[in-house]
Amino acid sequence: MQLSKKEILAHANSVCKNTLMETLNIEMIDVGSDFLVAKMPVNSSVHQPDGVLHGGATVALAESVGSFASHIFLDIDKVYVRGIEISANHIKSVREGNVYAKATFIHKGKTTQLFDIRITDENDNLISLCKLTTITLPKSK
User: Fold this and answer.
1) Number of H helices, E strands in the chain
2) Torsional class of 76: left (φ above 0), alpha (ψ -120 to 50), beta (otherwise)
3) Which pTM does this prediction carry?
4) Is 97 within 8 Å of 121 (Cβ atoms)?
5) CATH numeric code, 5-138
6) pLDDT at 33
7) Of 7, 27, 63, 122, which is the active-site residue?
8) Residue 89 and residue 71: Cα distance in Å, rounded?
9) Contact 101, 119 (CB under 8 A)
10) Is the pLDDT of residue 80 over 90?
11) DSSP state letters, 28-83
């Protein structure tokens, strides 16, 4: 059975309770055939001491949206997903508002998946460019 966009996003956000995603107020907001978008507010809870978005919070956002995209597009009844490598280039700083992470498949293999994750601000300025590799591992029966 194919889930609707609304059902996918509702499920994604419901399983984030009591996790890092909830701590950082990350919300999944859009999904398509090969992408997932998440939003994270930029405020003092994700700032560096000088008042700009912390690169670690940005990377946590990127890994969260990319890993969850793997969950959506793979058969998670048979496999589980783990991030195995992430890289980030931080291009511009942000002090407030929201940032958006769009994870798009570069490679959608049975064992590994590769994502391009673009972090943008509310004006669609590129904040960070990330690459995430995930791996699927079989669940024990």
Assistant:
1) 3, 6
2) alpha
3) 0.93
4) yes
5) 3.10.129.10
6) 87
7) 63
8) 25
9) yes
10) no
11) EEEE-SSEEEEEEEESGGGB-TTSSB-HHHHHHHHHHHHHHHHHHHS-TTTEEEEE
Residue 85 annotated among the catalytic residues of the structure: no
Q: How far does Cα 47 stand from its chain's mean position?
A: 19
Strand, coil or helix: 111: coil
Determine the 3-state secondary structure of 15 from DSSP.
coil
Judged by phi (left if over 0) then psi (alpha if -120 to 50, else beta), residue 123 lies in alpha
pLDDT value for 77: 78
Residue type, 16: C
State mean pLDDT over 109-126: 96
The pLDDT assigned to 141 comes to: 66
Burial of residue 18, with CB atoms counted within 10 A of its CB: 0-12 exposed, 13-18 middle, 19 or more buried: exposed
The total of other beta-carbon atoms located within 10 Å of residue 61's CB is 28
Q: Which residue has the higher pLDDT, 34 or 132?
A: 132
Q: Where are the domains of the chain?
A: 5-138
Residue type, 81: V
Task: Name which of 63, 117, 131, 124 is nearest 98 in CA terms.
Answer: 124
Residue indicated by tokens 């509310």: 122
The whole-number pLDDT of residue 1 equals 54
- What is the predicted pLDDT for the residue at 12? 87
